[in-house]
Amino acid sequence: NNNNNNNTTTMWNSSPAASPNNNNGGGARRKGKGRASAFASSGGFDEEGALKMFEDMCDEDDCTVAGMEGISKLCTLLSLDPYSDIRVLVLLWKLGASKKPAEIQREEWMAGCHRLNFDSLEKLRGLVPSLDMGFLDMEEFKDFYKFCFQFNRQGTHKTLDKDLVVALLKMTLADPPRIPTPRLTSFCDFLEQSTDESYAKITLDQWRSFLDFSLEFGSDEELLSGYDEGESAWPVLIDEYVEFVEKMSKGGKK
Questions:
Q1: Which of 47, 48, 172, 203 is deepest in the core (most CB within 10 A)?
Q2: What pLDDT, in 10s, does the model give residues 146-161?
Q3: Rounded distance, CA 251 to CA 254, Å?
Q4: Can you say whether the dihedral through the CA atoms of 130, 132, 135, 137 is positive or negative?
């Protein structure tokens, strides 16, 4: 599978420099050095090794958090592009980075290291092949798909900009294909061409509904013959997308 993508500017909602937790200082970060005792080594797992990995990437002003600057530093060591390689998001999902967008907290990191059984950069490198999305079953993928939306939010914002949504849809659903390619292509076209300000930002419900909708209506033939807007419980965004598909099927101009 090709894990890279040309959407290099939209993997995250902001660049490292825009992160509110960023200071641009370099060098090893050994703040909180005495905290290693809180994670005593056990069962062949080197807690201090895992903790040192986190301390090397944590924020300058808060050793309990690693924002995008630190995550990007780790990705560089793993030879992963933090802004275009979907495996970065798979790793963060597997680690359990769910408390706040665009960061991983120390407790999440340590629990994830335990769960994935790595305590060194070498061991983590060995896990990179397993981060391919093709290994996720549909239940796992749906949880990962939700995570992709949540992690890419900015601060307390509940929505994502439309352009970012389009980029993330292509990254998560295209390779391997989770939904029919024409469905993904036409929905992205619909979003990009829409001038409705209410769709300038997309909600989590709309994001998740599109995947469920696409799994229920795979082809346009199924959609046009089986979709009843009057009985629809889908978000209005989906109803309007169906109208878009109907117009396209009748040869309407895009």
A1: 172
A2: 999 999 999 999 999 9
A3: 9
A4: positive
